[in-house]
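Look at a sample.

——
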Amino acid sequence: MTTHEEDLRIPEGFWEQPLTARQLQDFTECPHKFLLSQFVQREQVRRFLGGPAALHHALRTAIVQFYQKQRSAEDAQTILIDLFEDTWDGSLCTDSMEEETLHSQGRQILREFVDGWIGAEHQVLHTDLQLTEQIGQGRFASVADLVFADEEDTGAVQIVRLNS
């Protein structure tokens, strides 16, 4: 098999994996683009991700890890920014200006998150929870970044999906 033919094979295990909500959204918006995206090799992925994806990944990782470790609200800003710094990958940005801008925005987003969200007490039930379901021949998946107990103790839950 030639290198070109190897590049055009569907990734191993593709049909066994459930489709995520994002994959379904991508397919709905443009089936051709979705299909082509399945053939991008791992070494090519970095080139296509870019700065905004790096920012989202660093923010989400910092917030989920903060709640996984059940940190106190007192030092939340320092802890979150340290977690953000550990994950931030500015090399995915197109240039140094984008890297500096997105890095600064990420720190500001976390400061605002602490001011508007962390102060309230939340009982964390789950972090980074994956929900899967088989519907007919299709397998579907969704991710809940944070799951909190209802503050009024009604048995309801609050599910948070972090988007940036």
